[in-house]
Specification:
Number of strands: 0
Radius of gyration: 27 Å
Strand content: under 5%
Structural class: mainly alpha
Order of helices and strands: HHHHHHHHHHHHHHHHHHHHHH
Shape: flat
Length: about 375
């Protein structure tokens, strides 16, 4: 638990106090370190386990292989691989997938392909790792050939689709691009399209995401999740015209009563500098949650409209919305301003309305 929350020192203290440590104890520490990308610590704990005479199992190996790959620790990775072969863990698909990924990190493509070819059982992860690995190392033709083999056995995920689209673009293979398009149409799965759009968004490829939207609008019905992602792109680009276009689509599609969509629209108009439009959306919303209030209060404070900020803050209690840390951080600049103006009563009212009177009293002493 401590490791998962990033409290490695506390986790080590608990571990050191344990009178007995079995492979499960060591695995918990190694996997925890790997999960938070503390590669050096994960490898160090693994080596300590080996010196303590612990025989690794498939979970141990699956946890330490990402550390070897993350550190590009070729020698360490080879040692782990040798042990895997020696004790027969290579038959475990998760272990083989870990080796596959590690060798791609080492840029040893021949070894990666050998691992894949020798696997007795392959799953989605196996295929995705190899296809994405080939695409990332610019072996685009090989990536596309593997994709053609995969679609007859497993369903490609976001990373696979994104990788082959990238490969297709680099090779300017229009025929293959149409095949992917038809494949996604037949699946009739808007989730796959949303996943692709989200993938481009997460990597900052906003124009690619918008191109995909145009294709998607022709063949599939856009859903509320698509709208939220597109509003996020408008927000990142601070593109008011795009935001208004999406707003019109939202009304036509009937998503203007969706709370999450409305929250995204409030945020988009704020980030585009259109406070009045943001307030119109806010006022027309039938319900508000904590995200809505935090967005609008922070916007009021950042725009310097402390009168409206105070009024909005007071209204949160009326609607029974309890504050969180984001609320407090949002109103702090307003409180600082009021303190400079010696308006202690107004500050007291803000904290009292939010149920944070004790914090106010502590801050005044």
């Amino acid at each position: 638990m401590y490791v998962r929350f990033g409290c490695l020192a506390e986790a080590l203290k608990v571990f050191d106090r344990m009178s007995e440590r079995d492979v499960v104890s060591w695995n918990s520490l190694i996997s925890g370190c790997s999960a938070i990308r503390h590669w050096e610590e994960a490898l160090e704990v693994y080596n300590m386990a080996r010196m303590a005479g612990i025989m690794p199992d498939s979970f141990t190996v699956s946890s330490v292989l990402p550390a070897c790959g993350g550190l590009v620790h070729v020698k360490g990775g080879e040692v782990v691989h040798c042990l895997v072969e020696k004790i027969g863990l290579h038959i475990d698909v998760a272990v083989s997938n870990g080796l596959l990924s590690m060798y791609f990190k080492f840029n040893r493509l021949v070894d990666a392909r050998r691992i894949f070819d020798e696997m007795l059982v392959r799953d989605n992860v196996s295929w995705n790792t190899l296809i994405c690995g080939y695409s990332q190392t610019e072996l685009y033709k090989e990536s596309m050939e593997l994709f053609m083999q995969m679609v007859n056995r497993f369903k490609p995920d976001l990373l696979t689709i994104t990788s082959v689209v990238r490969a297709c673009g680099h090779l300017r293979d229009l025929k293959f691009g149409k095949f992917i398009h038809e494949y996604m149409k037949k699946s009739g799965d808007s989730v796959s399209w949303n996943s692709m759009i989200n993938g481009y968004y997460q990597h900052g490829n906003y124009n690619e995401a918008l191109k995909l939207l145009k294709i998607m609008k022709i063949d599939l019905k856009v859903d509320s999740i698509t709208c939220v992602m597109l509003l996020s792109i408008s927000t990142q680009l601070a593109n008011q015209d795009l935001g208004k276009e999406i707003h019109c689509d939202i009304i036509k599609l009937g998503f203007d009563s969706d709370l999450i969509v409305n929250n995204a629209m409030v945020d988009m108009y704020v980030k585009c500098g259109q406070m009045n439009d943001s307030l119109k959306i806010f006022d027309n919303m039938k319900t508000h949650d904590r995200v809505t209030w935090n967005t609008i209060i922070t916007a009021c404070v950042q725009s310097g409209d402390f009168t409206l900020g105070l009024r909005m803050t007071n209204q949160t209690r009326t609607e029974g919305v309890m504050p969180d840390m984001a609320t407090v951080l949002g109103i702090l600049p307003m409180c600082s301003f009021l303190a400079a103006k010696r308006k202690g009563k107004e500050i007291h009212a803000v904290f009292s309305d939010l149920g944070l009177k004790q914090m106010f009293q502590l801050g005044m002493h």
